[in-house]
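Q: My labmate handed me this sequence with no annotations at all. I'd like to see what the chain might look like in three dimensions before we decide whether it's worth expressing. Could you predict it?
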Amino acid sequence: VNGSAPSTYTWNGICPPYTPQLVMLNNVSFSPLPTTNTLQIGVTSINNNTDQNNTNDVITKTIPTTTLIAPRINMQMDFTQDQYGSEIQWKVKDDATGTIVAQDGPWSDLSTSGTLLHTKTFTLIPNNCYRLEITDDYGDGACCSFGSGSYDLKSGGNSIFSGPANYGKGLTKWFKTDVNAGITNLAHTQNLLSIYPNPSDEKLYIQINSPKEDIYSFSIINQLGQIIYADKQNIVGEKKIEMNVKNLTPGLYHINIHSSEHTFSKSINIIH
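A: Here is what I predict for the chain of 272 residues:
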C-alpha cells in the first residue's frame, strides 16, 4: 500500500483452470494519504512454483481518500424495493468494529412487478467512520423489469448516497460523520445525562436531569442491529434509570436516547 513493505498471504484451496475464486485477504493497516492511495496486489507463486503465465500476476488500483462527510448524526434511509423485497436488505455498520447500528429488510414480495418505499431513521455519533452495505440475494438488484427501485441515505435531510438500485448483488459505500455533527445537542446532553458504568456487568444506570418535562425514549441495539430494549418515560427534574444487563451476551451494544430537543448516542460494553 502506497509503496510500503509488502504483506504476504498464503491461500490454500482449489481453483480449476479458467474459473474465478474469491480470496479474502487479512486486514492491512496503513496511514492514508490526503488525496489518493495506491494498492498493489500480486501473485508470487502458484502451487509453490513460478506462475507459467506471469503477464497478469500484478494489478494496481488507485483508491481515493474519501472526503464524503455526513454533516448530521440524524440519518434517514429511503429505500424503494422492487417486486422481490425478500431478496433485499441494507445495513449501516461501524467501520472499525463491524457493529450494525441500523438495518432494514428483507421485506415482503409484491404480488406483481412494482415498487414500495421503506423509510427508516436512526442516529449515529460524531467523528466516526461507517459503511453502508446493500445486498441482493438473487443478484439482480431492485430494478429493471420487476420495478425500478432506488436508495437514498440522508444526513440531516441532505442526501449523501443515492441512486437507482441496479447494483447487482449489492454495493458498499463508506462515509464519516462530521466531527461537529450534533455537537450542540451533545454539549447540552452531556449536562443532562450520563451513562455508567461502562463497561458494565450487571447493572447499567442512566442519570437524567431534565430542566423541563419531556418524553425520553431509550433503545439498546445489539451487533445484529436488533432492538433488544426499548422504553419511553415522561421525565422532569432528576431521575436515575436502572437497567439489568446481566442476561445480555457480553459484547458491544449501541444505546440511543431521544427527547424532543436532544439526541444522545453511545456505545456500551457488556462484560461478565
